[in-house]
Structures are given as structure tokens and as C-alpha cells.
Amino acid sequence: MSNPEQLRYSKEHEWLSAVEDGVATVGITQHAAHALGDVVFVQLPEVGQDVTAGESCGELESTKSVSDLYSPVSGTVTEFNQDVVDDPALVNTAPFEGGWLFKVRVSEEPSDLLTADEYTAFAGE
Amino acid sequence: MPSVTLGASVPMSTPPAASRRTALDAVHRALGATMTDFAGWDMPLRYGSERDEHNAVRTTAGLFDLSHMGEITVTGPQAGQALDHALVGHVSALAVGRARYTMICAEDGGILDDLIVYRLGDEEFMVVANASNAQTVLDAVTARAGGFDAAVRDDRDAYALLAVQGPNSPAILKSLTDADLDGLKYYAGLPGTVAGVSALIARTGYTGEDGFELFVAPADAEKLWAALTEAGAAHDLVPCGLSCRDTLRLEAGMPLYGHELTTALTPFDAGLGRVVKFDKPGDFVGREALAAAAERAAATPPRKLVGLVAEGRRVPRAGYQVVADGTVIGEVTSGAPSPTLGKPIAMAYVDAAHAEPGTEGVAVDIRGAHEPYEVVALPFYKRAR
């Protein structure tokens, strides 16, 4: 599986888009989605909620497990993906696209995220 | 929070070094299966979506590799009596060609394993144990058969086990065998030839659907898998992993050793006292303790095994507490999102006072939040016959 070049990645298997007008999009990687199996429930941060890089801000339930969702960046949530709340399977079918999770007004530029190549090596793909 | 982090739950590429591989290992890898360590075996967890695999078994057919299961063969003039003594069931009463669900208990009545016993001949039985307990069962049966004219054989390496489960499974199998499948009842088994491979064909399973389990020589496993896959193509047969096997058995209300069944519980505690046959001839291991457990269960029922159905979407997991009025009244033993019901379900042991279907005010503590659950009778799902 290929990880899009334009995204940056956390070691907790989240991705972060390029920041546009101060806002970036967050999701989980295809590697993570594949490892979790069918996602059946997502709990996402609320609009207006402050999230902190590396800290839990929600959860994903799959058939076999429940996993904390970590924000790869600090900031304030501006939007969450209602489509994913209604149809969590989008996380499996389109983790980098329609399965995005939430958008953040970035308060602090993250410094420790991985490039696509680095993440690919990290995930052992 | 007792939750798993995304980071921690994502398996990296190296499987545990000690895992055993089945005769179908190369097939699973070629199919791109996600593998998992299960009771010391490297087994397919799923090939694609576990929900799709689950639904295939409910509506068409699924193909499983269950070669991790542990086969033990008992032969000899007193093979039946030896098993009557070793197990809680009346195994010697089985007709040749029939199978029975039973258990093996410790002297104190605790469940060592749940089993299926097939009578293959007048003097030949095959005991199928869970992979995680196979050595325990082998050791116990061997020791308990000591005073009988019977031989106990470890046949774990003698068989690969393939299962075809789902409503289309008879049609698939019929196209590959001359065996009398219409005459093969549920919980029966007969020797035959499937796709040119010698097999014990059993009409058993762990999915709540009609289906077959095929015990074959490991050297024949790939050939049989390929033939079933080819014949199954016209019947929407899909390869299925252990993940959907777990949700299928949960919907069907079938217990899983290590979850609903443990050494700390007797069959009566698990609501399965019917497998204990006190009226069989001869003594059997655990009789005294089990008789006491039967009385106890009748007089002052301990916690009972019930079904729980979620009103919300958060999934109960094994070990989560069941609560009512802020008090802990039980514990979840298995839980999963149910593909058939479209909502989370669980099996749980709860205090008898809260065990009646429809009991109000029952919730599961899901990581600190008390999510309302409905108490229901098991199973959650029963196929139309």
C-alpha cells in the first residue's frame, strides 16, 4: 500500500494534511485501518475542542478491539467528518480520502512527524 | 483507560517465532491473509473484511482452515468405557457415525475443555479438543484411560481440518463427492472421498449454520482447499478467518473456552449441565463434585450466562463489568459488533436476579460510561431450518 507523499505521519498511525489557511485534516493510515479490521464505531472530538499532539482525542472500535485516537497536532477542532460517524467503514475503504476524521486549526506546527517514506519504513510495509 | 492504543494494536511484520503453521500456510499467504497467533498457531484472522466473511457464511458459504484443532484417537475394546470415565458424556452410547458435544472436567468439576467426540467405529473414537487445551486433554484422557483396554493416540499432526459453512455448503460439497450427504445428519460423520481426497466428512461446525468439517491428511489439504475454492466459485464461497468464526459463534450463542468456559466453572455454572450424564454406567472423573454443583445450581443459582444487546454503538469487550443501579452484577465474557443484528452484542455472567430476559436497568461499563443493554435469551441468532 502506498502512503501519499503530501501527507505527514505520526508513529501512532495518524496522518496530517498540509496546513491550508491555518487548518489541517487528520485521519488514520491505511496500514492502521488494515490492522484494525472493520471499523464499526468512531468517537471524534467535538467542534471547538482543543486537542494536543500525542494525546487521545477519541476512539475507534473495530470487530476485535478498541483503539485510542491520537491527535498528530495541537490546535482547535473546526470540523469532524459526519460521514464517517454515520458509516465508519469509510475508514477502511478510503482512509486517506473520504475516511478523514477531523480538521484542526493548528496552534503549533508539529516537529516530530514522519514523511511518507519514513512512515512506510516505520510501519514495516 | 483499558483501551488499546492504535500504535500498540497495529501488528508489525514479525510473527511470534514459535508459532506453528498449518498445511495451508502458503495458501493463506498467497491470499493476502492477515495472520494472528492463536494458541501457538499462526492462523488466518481474516482475508479481507471480517464482516463480509461473516455475512458470506450466513447467506452463501465460507471456507475455513481449522487445522489448529487437536485430534485424539481412542481405540480398543473398551474405548467407549474409557471415554465414559474420562469425559462427562455417555460416549459409549453413541452410534457409529454419530458425534456428540461434551466436556472433560477436573476432579473438582471445573471444565478442562469442551469437545466434540465422533464415533468412527465400534472400537474407535475421535476426540476433537480446542488447540489451547489439546495437550491438557491428551494428558488427562491418557491418564484416565489407564485402567481400560484402550489405546490413546495423539493425532494432532495426522489431520488438517477444513470447514465449509453456510447455506450453500451442501451444494458445494455434493459437486465434489459421492458420499450420501443427504443422509448425513447434523452431528454425524462418515468416511468418504472429496475431490479425490480421503476425508472424514462431518456435519458439524461452530457458526450456527449448516456446514461440514473435513478431516484430511495434511498432505492433501492444499488439493482439497483448491477444489473447494473452485467448486465454491459458483456458490459465492469465500475464504474466512478466525475473526468471523468468533462473531458467528457468538451470534449463535456458542461458548468459547477461556471466555464462557474455564476451570473455575462447572458445566452447570455455564448453563450446560445437560452435557453431564449421571445415569451412564460406571464412575467418571468429577462425578461427586458435579453432583454437588448440579444441586447448588438448582437451589441457589449462581450467576447465569445471558445475552446482552446494545442500545448504543459502543462495543462491550471481555472483562467489562455489567452494572445495575450503580452496582456490579456481572461480567462480559465475549462481546463484538454483530453483523447480523447490526449492533453490539455480548455474552455475560450476571447475578440471577438480573438474568431474566427483559430485565430493566442493566448497563455495561464501557471505559467508564454506563451504556444501556437489553438482557436477552441466547442465542442471538438461529437459522431458519
Automatic annotation (TrEMBL), chain A:
Keyword Magnesium carried by entry: no
Cofactor(s) demanded: (R)-lipoate
Keywords: Lipoyl
Stretches assigned to the Lipoyl-binding domain: 23-105
Cofactor notes: Binds 1 lipoyl cofactor covalently.
Highest taxon listed in the record's lineage: Bacteria
UniProt-listed Pfam families: GCV_H
Signal peptide start-end: none
Residues recorded as bearing N6-lipoyllysine in the entry: 64
Subunit structure: The glycine cleavage system is composed of four proteins: P, T, L and H.
HAMAP family: GcvH
Family: Belongs to the GcvH family.
Family annotation (PANTHER family): GLYCINE CLEAVAGE SYSTEM H PROTEIN, GLYCINE CLEAVAGE SYSTEM H PROTEIN-RELATED
Function statement: The glycine cleavage system catalyzes the degradation of glycine. The H protein shuttles the methylamine group of glycine from the P protein to the T protein.
Name the record gives this protein: Glycine cleavage system H protein
Gene: gcvH
